[in-house]
Design a protein that fits this description.
With 74 residues, the protein is an all-alpha fold. Helices cover 68% and strands 0% of the residues. The N and C termini lie close together (6 Å). The relative contact order is 0.12.
Length: 74
């Protein structure tokens, strides 16, 4: 549904020399959020998640503004 957002992210990564398409960006996001949820639900230890600290900070910033649910998970 938000293909344009993921393509924009892919374009910005491309400007930094990272070759990804929108689909790959979305899939990576989905995997990161699934891993984050596994940790928060207690199915995985925090130490097993390489990006848990970064995701926690990101979620804390975006949940209050509604951008996490409205933009990236749509």
């Amino acid at each position: 549904r938000r293909a344009a957002l993921w393509e924009e992210i892919a374009e910005k990564l491309g400007n930094q020399g990272i070759k990804r398409d929108g689909k790959q960006c979305r899939e990576k996001w989905d995997k990161l959020m699934a891993e984050y949820k596994d940790v928060t639900d207690g199915r995985k230890d925090q130490g097993e998640s390489s990006y848990f600290g970064e995701l926690t900070a990101f979620v804390a910033q975006t949940v209050g503004s509604g951008t996490l649910n409205n933009s990236l998970n749509s």
